[in-house]
Fold these 4 entries.
Entry 1:
Amino acid sequence: MRLADLQRKDVVSLKDGRRLGRIIDVEIDGLGNIEYLVIEPKRFFRFFTSTEETTVTFKQINKIGEDVILVEI
């Protein structure tokens, strides 16, 4: 699976079912391993509000489905 495939999926919290947003970036260590995913929250008024990014470690991902990525945050 490519990063572009992951970026098309919504990230959803298993704890409360809340949609967290979509993946906008990935942090990779010196060995080429994914350290964490950077998620930008969905906002209707993106131009008027500051964007707070959320990070999710690869260990927090519970399941990657066809449309969503389920995470435990």
Entry 2:
Amino acid sequence: MGQPAGERTPDTLFLRVVSAVVLVTIAVGATWLGAPAFDIFVALFAVVMIWEWAGMCGIRLNSLTGWLLGLGVLLVILFAALERYEGTVIAGLASMILLAGLGGRREKRWAVAGVLYLGIPCLALVSLRQHPESGLVHVLALFVIVWANDIGGYVFGRTIGGAKLAPKISPNKTWAGVAGGLACGIAAAAVMATVAGGMSAVLAALLALAIGAAAQAGDLFESWMKRRFAVKDSGSLIPGHGGVLDRVDGLLAAAPLAAILTIAARGGN
């Protein structure tokens, strides 16, 4: 989540807080319940993200390209939920190959990119939650780190301000906001590790630094995308926030890294 532009009115801030509380409650509840609730939760969010991605990139949802984009991402989630990862790979590759042969040059490029940009993070989230012993903790930890980064970036960016990180991409994102977001993510992970156990606070902090950096990169990428296509927000579904992609841009980049780190920690299992 990028640092906001301009001043927020009290009404807007109230909407942002209420929307955030509702979304966090739904996300935590679905994560706590596990499959199939969590898989359905990811799939529903994927549908909205596909719609927003298509809108930003100029892909008509009622076109064959739009249908293949949506079908490709949803099949990836379905096969991942069934733990049929060979099917996941086949579905993803097949949809990308078909998309590459359709539409104009610009439409093809962004449709294929959408399968990767949306499909891989959804696959990562579903696979992370599936582990019977640590899935719940790992997904909640990922959420907490990304959310802490968002909150820290917002608070520190607004209160300190200062030098801009990448003014041509995200004019309101400052180095103070980035540092504050990373610090909050590290602190949140260290607290979780101390409370939950199973990992030292130092290791948790290092992992949080890597995941937080990925989340910051995801935020910048989505800001670049919006500037590339001259849109202010990816959508308007979430009151006070904009679109779903505006709120989960950091998570989309952080989830695959979290899955890779988890697999490495389990020794490939």
Entry 3:
Amino acid sequence: MEKTTEFLCPMTGRLLDLSAVPDEVFADKVMGDGFAVDLQGKDVVAPVAGVVESVFPGGHAVCMVADNGCQILIHIGLETHHIPGVYRVRVKAGQRVKQGELLVTADYKKVRKHAHSPVSPVVFLNQEKVRILKEDQLVKAGENHIVEITYGGQGECTTA
């Protein structure tokens, strides 16, 4: 059965195909399909209403479960957990969030300067299929109609 919901872009930057992420686990869709954003803004917002399942140590990633059951991993930059003072986490595990609510504030200039990459993957962990509608275009946190998602399947969200 297909489930649909409005999905907001979680961050500002250039919208990319997941294959553009310079990490094989994400680029090869080992964890699931999705897209990436070349981070160019500080706010990371909830793309859907749901519950924060986990916040990774240091705040570099958030996993949430949408009201429709979709599990979403939002990973902010790559290899940033070692950079002090980059993230200010605004939510905690178990917290219910509204669509568009602020999850994390990122010092995106530090991410762009010190991270392995500022490219930030957004992965759907329940075998969803994603079609990018605005590839290689600038998108803003909270913007709608950036991707088309076909929901379904079963998945698991972990903090490993």
Entry 4:
Amino acid sequence: MEKNKNLTADTADVICGRNPVIEALKSGTPRLDAIYINGFGGSLNLIRNLAKENNVVVKDAQEQKLNQLSGGASHQGVAASVACGEYASVEDILNISHQKGTKPFIIICDEIEDPHNLGAIIRTAEAAGADGIIIPKRRSASLNATVFKTSAGAASYVPVARVANLASCIDVLKENGIWVYGTDASGSDYDKTDFTGSCALVIGSEGFGISRLIRKKCDFMVKLPMHGKINSLNASVAAGIFMYEVLRQRGAI
């Protein structure tokens, strides 16, 4: 009963309070996603050490952020988010196209931090038949309740891999014969680019686009035509257009 009191009022995807978070770390809860901490010392340092041992992301947070996460519950300076689904491996995603007998079609989200955008991308990826989504472990939205809700249930069907090093992951994809396409205004026209082979689309963050390191890893850069006064689209909207161009070229639509 004590543990339930430390969950948010309207969702069970956050554990609040020092002792509940410590026990969750000690138990090796597999879906523990990230820990938000305000301060150092005492049991907060213990939590930081346990999180490091369990390879769980720690994020320094202001009191306002913790109040928001806790939904009014007593957080004692710490709250842990719990993923609403299990993460897949990159190998799992690669095996999907092999099982289907199709060329790999993967979406890479480079630091998409807005859970609404990530959820919308997952929803479109499911509709477009993508094999899976790859996200970085840090500086990215995770499989939280908002992502699941925004995906309209698609997050239950599209495998999402969460990797510690996105650049190294791209190297693995290339070793498996997959071409990597970055999306950026400096690229070639998307409808004049060949997507018929094995491909991975990289969608950059909402404010900064694709990071410099990941840009260097891309085989091609592609862009959408922009004829208005606004020079960019919402990340999830742009991702949807690119995904359906892949389908069009593959004769799926």
